[in-house]
């Protein structure tokens, strides 16, 4: 791999500015470790799971990374949904203690009323606070105001700008990444802030090259890594992602009502595949005609029609019981239509990195030497 050097790669000691997102229920220790082994940086998502699961996933990562030096940081991160931490401070302390015991290199915070509280908790309990080995705090955000806060008040070590295209949860009113990234890059520059990395809708190396020229020092991909065998998504989820086109990726609260995962901060919704299309029916995955105009009614349409939430929840529970994939919840960013196959996570990092290098070099060729 020809290294790409940015302030992010220097901070983390990595060769590629490619980060795999923490994804609740989808990114465990295997995915995070493989991304790091390929030269990028991987995150475990510690969403709704109990502390035991986090311990298990960190154990998997530790083994894959052959990490035996207890003095060295474990070169992956763990991402938390801050509203879940706020819901149960006891559980929060247990989870954060596990992360500190395992000496992970980074903690990612997003979606809470009081992110600063958790950043402070980590810093106050980190034996290496103040040194180069200290846990690095990543803060994911979607507005210029939040960027000001994250730099000035929270003193984040890395800022993650999440655009509207992002799979999974995010600010419904967030700007597209092509606008958000340079806006936040200006804030970072004016405040002499930390590395900025960009997230949302990324699928190919050319997009990464463009963001590096827009002021980002790295990128975050979630959905693309769901299409690796190391993610915790099932084969049915992956088939749905491969079959989907980008117009099926929609922002909605339908899935949170259906799953009863409510409590997100105001303005947050989730981007996933508008389910219920024929693409989700077993046996017709290869169907390539009209997509969500299909006649199968499922969660999003039910929700938009005002169907009683209890009914929507019951339908989802029945679908899970009978193995009916038409109601499957598949989070996916708007880049999903650019994704065509499942690949090992290390190959994804290598492919994205090589494409990015090629496009950065190719862009230079556009300039005519006088
Ligand atoms: C399945 C899934 C789960 C996610 N879970 C989390 C999470 O637990 N915490 C978080 O901060 N972001 C989460 N995200 C959002 C990611 O951090 C990131 O912003 C997003 O994946 C980037 O967009 P992309 O999926 O289009 O690459 C999730 C995304 C997906 C697809």
TrEMBL record:
MF (Gene Ontology): nitronate monooxygenase activity
Gene3D superfamilies: Aldolase class I
Keywords: Flavoprotein, FMN, Oxidoreductase
One Pfam family it belongs to: NMO
Protein name in the entry: 2-nitropropane dioxygenase
UniProt source species: Cyclocybe aegerita (Black poplar mushroom)
Lineage: Eukaryota, Fungi, Dikarya, Basidiomycota, Agaricomycotina
